[in-house]
Specification:
Pfam families (chains A, B): ROK
Protein name (chains A, B): Glucokinase
CATH superfamily of the largest domain in chain A: ATPase, nucleotide binding domain
Oligomer: homodimer
Number of helices of chain A: 10
Distance between the termini of chain A: 17 Å
Keywords (chains A, B): ATP-binding, Kinase, Nucleotide-binding, Transferase
Largest sheet of chain A: 5 strands, mixed
EC number (chains A, B): 2.7.1.2
Family (chains A, B): Belongs to the ROK (NagC/XylR) family.
CATH architecture of the largest domain in chain A: 2-Layer Sandwich
């Protein structure tokens, strides 16, 4: 039996998975991400964990098809990270270094792109080869898959949907340095920001006014209870995200758009807002694009990383 | 010696090229596009022209690697046209029909995508594998190439850059039925429209007021003469197009953006307007994206069609 490793390197933990060649997840576990000293321990730690798991399972290098890595930074086609904020690395030839450390075949990709690949393989995008995934978490992550492959691009920065500009009048800065990025309105923090702005506009009664800690979850919980102000906020969010996705669909022509991240826990009610606005503005050829929720949760990264090897 | 045909089917003429396997264009010519009777004669006419050329050159089917077709309509990966406005066809299995007619291998793609492929192979995008091409003609056509291949998408409608929405306040309709499409501002007709709107705003002197037939060419000619009103119009055009391209670059991460079509005859002065605005709004990873003018003119289509075979 042949196996591969799917590994999702995050800023605080590294998620690790051992997969059979047919995609079955055999084992998964986590180790800590040690970012100190410019993150020099990260790849050696991952290598140790892999070797330990192999001896535990009685596997040799001959049984391993390779190791796939998802990394929270741009990653070029050659497996090079030009720079990274979260891990302490600067320029790093991840694929080459990891192949030298392990003596096994390695592929590396950006974590959001890799998660999209995972969702296409085993999750919300199953059965499709053209997909956009948008991850609504603290930020807005994106992954675009064309004909079964991630859009990596020249700098390894393909799929940065969260940093398309949706409001040229915005005066506050996004984390990326720009202004008016999709992330400023459609992430969990962005939705909270929309809610605060709306609540400050007037004094219309809303259960959101009783919330101690306003959040995207509180907004969608209130929507489900029919709260009018919350519905206004969700409508604005849906319009901004739906219109942005319509523009991306005109360029990428996906079969399906998968929505993931913490915000997606609100469930199918999201589509009432996002999909409706999408259809209003979509190019005619894209109007039947499907919407789906992500299904793999935190496992999307390890699954997609494995798929880098099993493609 | 092996050869292939690169064929660009337009609404009024079919451009045809015979290429050596190494990309050298050996011969090119045109035939009329007969769109009457639902365009039933088009593929048989092309077949006849191919057969005539082969006997003229003493070529047999064994010398021909295949026939590439560019078509002014969406074309799926399977070589199917779901529907077309210009040629009279409805649903048409172009690849299969053409293979039956000729007994040779056929590939088909959308004409704008195919032109982009041509520019990457032999024109303004040479040496790159990630490219956006935008063709500023009567409309705004687009082609996106990722890792050397056209973005075709689910419906064969990938790369429809001209129909991304750039102005949600627009009240006039685009030809596609939408409102606020890039095409309404950045095509030759779009630039003329911007110029008319600007001239109607006040009575500031401008050499454009003396033009009998206002056109994109007249606007850029006036820009070159330092006309202030024309510079304002060019600035607005550059902002709309540059900002739209910045958003597409965030998703596709191209190495180069190639500008083609009639408007591109204005030359490098275009970049002063488009590239400047692009850099203002581009995601940081995309700020060094190169800009280039298309180089192949009307031959981009036949070259790209040949490249569908020679890839």
């Amino acid at each position: 039996m042949n196996y591969c490793f799917g590994i999702d390197i995050g800023g605080t933990t590294v998620k690790m998975g051992l997969f059979q060649f047919d995609g079955k997840l055999v084992d998964k576990w986590e180790i800590k991400t040690r970012t100190e000293n410019k993150g020099e321990a990260i790849l050696p730690d991952v290598t140790k964990a892999i070797n330990k798991k192999m001896s535990e399972k009685g596997l040799t290098k001959d049984n391993i098809l390779g190791i796939g890595l998802g990394i929270p930074a741009p990653v070029t086609e050659a497996g090079i990270v030009p720079d990274t904020a979260n891990l302490g690395w600067g320029y790093k030839e991840v694929k080459r270094e990891m192949e030298e450390l392990t003596g096994m075949h390695v592929e590396a990709g950006n974590d959001a792109n890799v998660a999209a690949l995972g969702e296409m393989w085993l999750g919300g995008g199953q059965g499709h080869r053209n997909m956009i995934m948008v991850t609504l978490g603290t930020g807005v992550g994106g992954g675009v898959i064309i004909n079964g492959e991630c859009v990596v691009g020249k700098h390894g920065a393909g799929g940065e949907i969260g940093h398309t500009c949706v409001n040229y009048e915005e005066e506050e800065h996004c984390g990326c340095g720009g202004k008016g990025c999709l992330e400023q309105y459609a992430s969990a923090t962005g939705i909270t920001r929309l809610a605060k702005r709306r609540l400050a506009e007037d004094s219309e009664p809303s259960i959101l006014r009783e919330e101690n800690a306003l959040s995207a979850k509180a907004v969608f919980d209130a929507v489900k209870k029919g709260d009018r102000v919350a519905i206004e906020i969700a409508t604005k969010f849906g319009k901004i995200l739906g219109y942005a996705l319509a523009n991306i669909a005109a360029v990428c022509d996906p079969a399906v758009i998968v929505i993931g991240g913490g915000v997606s826990k609100a469930g199918p009610i999201l589509f009432e807002y996002i999909e409706k606005s999408f259809k209003e503005k979509a190019f005619f050829a894209n109007r039947d694009t499907k919407f789906a929720l992500a299904e793999l949760g935190n496992d999307a990264g390890i699954c997609g990383a494995a798929k880098l090897i099993l493609k």
